[in-house]
Amino acid sequence: MNSPTINAPSVNAPTIASSAVFIDLSISSWTGRKLDKRASTSITDQANAARGVANVSKKLLGDCAELDAVSKFAANARNIHYGMTMPWSDLGLRICPLPVYMNKYESTMGTLQTEFAKLVTTFLDAYDWEISQAQLKLGSLFNADEYPTRDSLESKFKFRFTAMPMADAGDWRLDIGNEAQTVMKSQYETFYNEQLSKAMGDVWKRAHDALTKMSDRLDYADHDTKKIFRDSLVDNVTDIVEMMGACNLTNDPVMAEAERKLSVALRGVTPDALREDAYLRAETRRQVEEVKRVIDNLPSMGF
Hints:
Elements: E1 20-28, E2 33-36, H1 37-46, E3 56-59, H2 65-84, E4 86-87, E5 94-97, H3 98-138, H4 150-154, E6 158-165, H5 178-217, H6 232-246, H7 253-266, H8 271-276, H9 278-296
Antiparallel strand pairs: 1-5, 1-6, 2-3, 4-5
């Protein structure tokens, strides 16, 4: 029996400014890559190809473990940031519920910021040595003029996050004529509501992806070939449940009910128990599927 269609809740935009903040995260690092025009020209000439159809991009330090550590850490930090926030604008701003920001985001990102600085220092301390090794790795591709000084290189590494207050859709403070203000306010309200709907849709999509994966991995009986899953399967859904509670900025009753049902379904459930108990596995999957069907039927999701 199909679940009843659930209409998308109306957006209660004026309440958002008091329950969330904008987050601007900026992480940058030196890539250590450089286009070698001379080598690029040589390759195309040898192949009798038109110039510009192939480029040689070289790693100035070759395989540098210290620089790779910085790059991987930066990518992981961004993923952690995405996990605690929701998308807002094409400029990169994201929104973070105040409880998440106060209880988790600020401390987590502050710790990552400190660790990033340590990794950068480790790389900078090894920089001169890595340049000397690069001469052996790059051979004739080595060009000493392509390596920045340590001081200029240090400025290429940044890790900054800033929280900014959100303005309500009705908050319009430009000193312009009433007619222009009315038009611009209407345009912003449209943008505001569209972005808020996208942000809430992002939470629904994360929930749908996590529940789909859990349902798939739990879909086997004792006599079937067991499906292997990591302990993070449960942790990921638990994190989503927490996110649904913190990120329900529009007081969506559908999301609130989905959060409640998942909280009940996962109460006391452990990965080992799911692996060993066929009944618990089947019952958990049933409840997960029930919530997933609700998400499937949301008109805004387009599944």
